Amino acid sequence: MILNRRTTVGIDYSSRDYESFRTDMIHHLQSVLPTYTDTSQNDAGIVIIEGLARALDVLSYYVDREANEALLATAKQRKNALLWCNMFGYIPKSTSPSQVYQVFVLQNTQPIDFLIPKGTVVSTPATQLSQPVYFTTMEDLIIPANKKGDEKSGDKYLYTVKCKQGQQISNEVLGTSNGKKNQIFNLSYYPVDLSSIKLEVKYDASSEWIPWEPAKNFIDSNYASKHYQPYALDSDIVQVKFGDGNLGAIPPQYANGIRCNYMYGGGVVGNVRANTITVVSSNLPQISSTFNPDEPFIKGSEKESLEEIRVNAPAYQLTRWGALTLKDFDSVIKEEFNTVLYTKTVRNPEDFDSLKIYLMMKDGHTITEPEKVEMLKELEVRKLVGMKNIELFPMELKPITLTASLVVGDNYLKSTIKKAVEEYVKNYFSVGRFSIGEHVSITRLEKEVFDNIEGVYSFRVTSPSDLVIKSTDSQVVTFNSITLNVTGGKDNA
Q1: Beta strand segments in 117-207, E
Q2: Phi first, then psi: what are they for 43, rounded to 5°?
Q3: Is 323 in a helix, a strand, or coil?
Q4: Cα(329)–Cα(390) distance, rounded to whole angstroms?
């Protein structure tokens, strides 16, 4: 015997929230029980349906979130983006330190040359509001006999030494190899300047410590390659990872046979003002005082943000260490240097095989010569054979002077709205808002002022008269001034 089954409504798989689930379940219930008409809050069936709808709403949220976290473009948590990067061999930039030149002054002249050794620690003074920022000398400084160390030649001090933000950790024992594949060891201090890591391995009691080399990935490593991969976790803890015996060697199983030297400390907190590094933290009583005559010549920066990872990681996938197109050169610079906000690479019109690269730094500072040297060193490795010359230039500012008419609503103070509009326009052209060579739409500015400032009845830019402010490949549009012709509104009481 064949039983007739009641036809039910189809399942709507686009239902994703509480209201949709509730409506679908009520419709389904009524399709199998046509006599069910009581959908009030007091009905027991509705109570059960609403409870299920809430549970399904929560489950739907978590399903969507997990799906989003699996993709770099939609991930909201940095740790998940790092997992994606690790899968494809991209290492996000960690916190980088600033570098300064430091002057030391002796208590008294010395009868012989006085050595201030590499590794001497200086700092800013501690205050109630801030902790000291530490710097470490990167080379020896010798003050000649019968000199105190504060002499000047023109506008430069004769005896200065390069210092890097952070403190040195020497010979930290990371542990013992267990002979397994892909071993991972943690460094004890953070944030770490990844470029400062020097890792050594001891093979047996009679051998010397052997330096191993860092690698961005193990793709080009073989079974004998003494490589390790350093990378920073979301928590800023730095790990070093070894190979599997095929792609990268496995360290030998000698007790406590892995050790590391590195510097920790960094970030924008190291971008101190001149004459603020005044404390000698190392035990050198012969030193009377110390100071930094200038601001850092290399600026410190924070770790690569999630938004930057979303841009730089796919770019790395395309370039794979090489630079072929003009955009590849932009990608390489953004990939390697945290301090760069925007780049624009163009062909030299006088020489097709030469490039000009314009740079906009994150804090608006002009690129320094030491920063240029580091960037050119990296680009020389990445560029194609045959590329003749690469030149780096700071961005050119294109200050804009605006004239606009502003109509204020009748119930608003004229002076208040005028000030708010002036501030909004100034922020609209702030550093980082526009990239090098990007054109600026006047109509978009007008719309944003109208949409975002309550009390603006009308806002029209009368000068420049063009709808678009055009800039060259070397320029960034910035704010100079604005003149507002204001009508309407109320005068101050």
Answers
A1: 121-123, 134-137, 141-143, 152-153, 156-157, 160-165, 167-175, 184-186, 198-202
A2: -75, 135
A3: strand
A4: 10
The whole-model pTM stands at 0.66
Using pLDDT thresholds of 50, 70 and 90, give the confidence band for residue 321. low
Structure tokens at 173: 């024992």
CB 395 within 8 A of CB 360: yes
Q: Does the domain at residues 321-394 carry the CATH identifier 3.30.300.200?
A: yes
Name the nearest CA neighbour of 437 among 374, 356, 325, 491: 356
In terms of DSSP bridges, do strands 209-214 and 227-232 run parallel, antiparallel, or are they unpaired? parallel
Contacts of 316 (CB under 8 A, 6+ apart): 88, 90, 331, 335
- Boundaries of every domain in the chain: 18-69, 99-166+267-291, 168-264, 321-394, 397-490
- pLDDT, tens digit, for every residue of 383-433? 877 778 899 999 888 999 999 999 999 999 999 999 999 999 999 998 778
324-334 confidence digits (pLDDT tens) = 788 888 888 88
CB atoms within 10 A of CB 261: 15
Position 467: which residue type? Answer: L
Tokens of 264: 């920790």
Q: In the structure encoding, which two tokens stand for residue 72, read together?
A: 């770099």
Residue with tokens 């590195």: 262
Distance CA 111, CA 109 (A): 7
Q: Residue 175 region, left (φ>0) first, then alpha (ψ -120 to 50), else beta?
A: left
